[in-house]
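Same chain as my last thread, 311 residues:
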Amino acid sequence: MDAKEKLFIWKTVIALQAVDALKTSAKVVDIAKQNIEGSLSDDALLDECESLKNPADIVAVKMFVNIIQNQFSLSQFELVQIRKALFGGLEESPELLRTTNLSKKEWALDGLSLVYPKSNKIQSQLNKLFEAETLFDFEGLEAKQTVKHIASFISDLWAIHPFEKFNTRTVAVFFIKYLSYRGLALNNDVLAQSPVYFRNALARSAFCDGKKGFHKTNRYMERLVKKIILGGRTVLDPKETHLYYDPNGVVLKVEGAAQKEQSASDRLDEKLAAEKKAPAKKSAAPKPSAKKAPAKKAPAKKSAAKKRGAK
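reply #2:
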């Protein structure tokens, strides 16, 4: 894997911590920089987790390691192994499926709650979903059909919410590895630039309230998948995923850090460019000597001139 590919993945795993409103620190950015530049090997990355205290940093490193391993099977086993790899040590028995019924409020739903399948339905729904996906034939599909299918599969997987927590980051890693499995390796930073849009799109794909006129829609996930696979200039604004967003009316206020696209991955770009910017910073160093102290004396000179004029 070359440095450019690593950069895309590092930016993505750092930014994806925002789906759970978490922030990484400068430490993980340093680790990523060293790995991209070759001074820190892939094999040594997990050892770095021992020196990290921020859970978001630890999970970001583990996500990167899991993605570059290139081991993948289209199965529930793979999903469970991913979660175990990411959150082992951060919680007990990370491989266990959810045993309680779960609901969660979502910003994109205007504070309404998504009610996930009952715990006794999880296994049967996972079996059904993976069986259908294993049998699905991609051969001869047009790009539009491919986008629709992938968006639908990932949305359906997330909607089951098989674990007590950390479902979105687990599914995100599965999604990235699944793309590679389908011959569509992640070669851009779309997810890195749109982590909150990703979560909101998943929420909208699972939400239905017929009484209020809201129905499940994969529109937003399809936009995301399309941009990842086909590129383009489509702007993925998390505000547009809100139930009451009106592009022709008042733009919704986006409150909370979780709704602002994570810029942590941008710090990695800055870090990698630090050496190039360093000379410019040094040449600019003399500027402080031109302190604006003379500017403070200027008024005094003017006042003196006025005194002469007064004489």
